[in-house]
Amino acid sequence: MAHPLLFHAVAAFFVGAVAVLLVHQPVVALLHAAGLFPVDAFSLRPTSPFGLPVFLSLAFWGGVWTVPIALALNRLPRGWPYWAGAVLLCSIPPSLTSWLIIAPLKGLPPSAFAQSIGVGNALLANGIWGVGVAILWSGIAKVTQRSARSGLAGSR
């Protein structure tokens, strides 16, 4: 059997990447269609350094971000703390990282992020992505708990 932390990391990565494709990008599409978001969803524009389309890069980084976020979500009680934690953890750290770290690494001032996408739009799209992460992660948790119980029962 694989190490539980490795299983957690792979499952969380998968949840985050899928949530970007099923939740984040459709929200971006709606915001773009409403004229509130300057970039279109599922963009095929290549990103540096590997030329990966933007939406696949976002899915990858969504998966990476979800590994520590899922660890935190596992420690929150179910109910409103879980949902609020998912929204806050998925909206604030990734948005601040884009604003304060990624933009300067690309040679842009932090204000470029605020002017292009908009801080509110980023927080909204990422926060709704957090709801998707929370839904998918709670589903994964239920499945793994059931399989762990049946595995324990079968080993007796």
If you had to describe this structure to a student in words, what would you say it looks like?
With 156 residues, the chain is mainly α. It has one domain. The protein is built from five helices and no strands. It is globular, with a radius of gyration of 17 Å. The two termini are 16 Å apart. The C terminus is likely disordered.
Secondary structure: elements and pairs:
Elements: H1 4-33, H2 54-74, H3 80-105, H4 110-116, H5 119-154
Helix pairs in contact: 1-2, 1-5, 2-3, 3-4, 3-5
Q: What structural category arises from helix and sheet content?
A: mainly alpha
Distance linking N and C termini: 16 Å
Q: How large a portion of the residues is in β-strands, by DSSP E?
A: under 5%
The shape, in one word, is globular
For the secondary structure, the number of strands is: 0
Element order: H for helix, E for strand = HHHHH
Q: Biggest β-sheet: count, sense, barrel?
A: none
Helix content: over 70%
The chain-level mean pLDDT equals: 88
Number of helices: 5
How many structural domains does the protein architecture include? 1
Compute the gyration radius: what is it?
A: 17 Å
Would you identify the regions where 5 or more consecutive residues have pLDDT less than 50?
Answer: 152-156
Summarize the structure.
By secondary structure, the protein is mainly α. Helices cover 77% and strands 0% of the residues.
Key terms for this structure?
156 residues, mainly alpha, 5 helices
